[in-house]
Amino acid sequence: MNHKREPAAIAFGEFVALMASMQSLVALSIDAMLPALTEIGQELGAKAVNDSQLIVTILFLGLAFGQGIYGPLSDTTGRKPAVYLGFSLFLVGCCLSLFATDLTVMLCGRFLQGLGLAGPRCVIVAIVRDQYEGPAMARVMSFVMTIFIFVPAIAPTLGQGILLLAHWRTIFAALLGCGLLTLTWFTLRLPETLAVEHRIPFSLGRIYRAIREVCSHRVSLGYTISLGLITSAFLGYLSSAQLIFQKQYELGTMFPLYFAILALCIGGASFVNGRLVGRFGMHHLTRWSKRISTVISILFFLYVLSVGGHPPLWAMMGYMMTILFCFGIMYGNLNALAMEPLGHIAGVGSAVMGALSTLIAVPCGILIGHSFNGTVLPVISGFAVSGVLIMLVMHWVESKAETPEAEGNAN
User: Fold this and answer.
1) b/e 105-132 (16+ beta carbons within 10 angstroms → b)
2) Do the domain assignments include residue 383?
3) 290 and 160 in one domain?
4) Where is this protein chiefly located (predicted)?
């Protein structure tokens, strides 16, 4: 069987590198600024220390709204116009943030960055699907994600390095430069991958029907809500990480190293899941990961409560490594499980699912982040509460299983 639909105009290695670079802009835009959050907030007149966390979370809000736009748009206009629109918004957002004189302008810039980055983030999968199918597509996406995994690990180090040599605005200048270089590479080297005869007229009705189908299907809705709950806990950690490690544990410039260790736990989980999912199945791995993470979170919360919210650094790192590894297992499987009933509307269904889960995550993540009180209690409670809610939601999904695999693996 020929897995390639039509020959790529660029070499396989360059194609993978280009897709990974486009995907990595999201992680770079989030994680590179973590070491600078306090400094940015102070200079732009943030009223409270926790207000600077909005610089991270507001980008996710832009991603949420954008995901519902670019998928259908790329089906109508072609892949490249949708990506051009996304990059344009991202670059404008970078300029706003670069020259911001108050927190409001900064947050507007960050929202535009998120709204723009939703373009390449959504369309990448469609571009790969246009070129490859079956195992060949899985191979490409695996290589893309392998490269992408290392960006969250090194991005805070890059941000910290820039801070040691220059002003925090240089981070946004670097993002602007990366965006321009990636856009130029994409423009010059990759041809349009969606033939005119395969394009679908834009229809609000099509989007509405996809929203209605996602929300009316127990499996897709339940796993989408679970994704939102996982992301909310992770977002609460992400927005609080700089304050926890640099302020509470006084790690200073060592913060990127500890952040990198935790980021690699998620990457390791993705690798392990890829090796085990064929043997044990998505439901089994997800079920045990949720049980382990929830029980450990509840027990660790009680321990943290007993020590006044200040556990030793080694205990905090051990807990976070375990939880993020479990989340790494669950995240990929929940995405696949939520998409199982939506194969006939995969493109727009994926966009709706991504937007809905992110809209659940952002307000919850903001609530967790803004609850930071100089201890790790808000973050740990976020993991514990989200774990309990995920178990309840997944029990609701599996109590009336709608797929043979779910039925065979039900609790």
Assistant:
1) ebbbbbbbbbbbbbbbbbbbbbbbbbbb
2) yes
3) no
4) membrane
* Domain-ending residue, one of 175, 202, 229: 202
Beta-carbon count within 10 A of 134 CB: 11
- Written as tens digits, the pLDDT of the chain (411 aa) is 444 444 446 888 898 889 989 989 988 998 999 999 989 999 998 888 788 889 998 998 998 888 778 878 888 888 899 999 999 999 999 999 999 999 999 999 999 999 999 998 888 877 887 787 656 665 676 677 667 767 888 899 999 999 999 999 999 999 999 999 999 999 999 999 888 888 878 777 777 777 787 788 888 888 889 989 998 998 899 889 988 998 899 998 899 999 989 988 887 887 787 778 778 888 888 889 999 999 999 999 999 999 999 999 999 999 999 999 998 888 778 877 776 776 566 567 767 777 888 889 888 988 998 898 999 999 999 999 999 999 999 888 877 654 444 434 433
Is 235:361 a contact under the CB 8 Å cutoff? yes
B/e letters for 370-405, b = 16+ CB within 10 Å, e = fewer, are: bebeebbbbbbbbbbbbbebbbebbeebbeebeeee
Q: Which two tokens stand for residue 249?
A: 């544990």
Domain check: are 181 and 273 in the same one?
Answer: no
Q: Are 93 and 391 in contact (CB under 8 A)?
A: no
Where would I find the H helices in 3-134?
12-31, 37-43, 54-77, 79-98, 103-131
The total number of structural domains that make up the chain: 2
In contact, 287 and 387? CB cutoff 8 Å: no
Whether residue 333 sits in one domain with residue 210: yes
What DSSP line would sit under 117-154, residue for residue?
HHHHHHHHHHHHHHHB-THHHHHHHHHHHHHHHHHHHH
Q: Is residue 403 part of a domain?
A: yes
Domain boundary among 137, 167, 202: 202
Residue 182 lies in a domain: yes
216 and 126 in one domain?
Answer: no
Which CATH number fits the domain that encloses residue 393? 1.20.1250.20
For residue 144, the tally of other CB atoms under 10 A from its CB is 23
CA dist 232 and 368 (Å) reads 8
| Residue 223 buriedness (CB in 10 A; 0-12 / 13-18 / 19+) | buried
Q: Render 257-287 in DSSP notation, one character per residue.
A: HHHHHHHHHHHHHHHHHHHHHHHH-HHHHHH
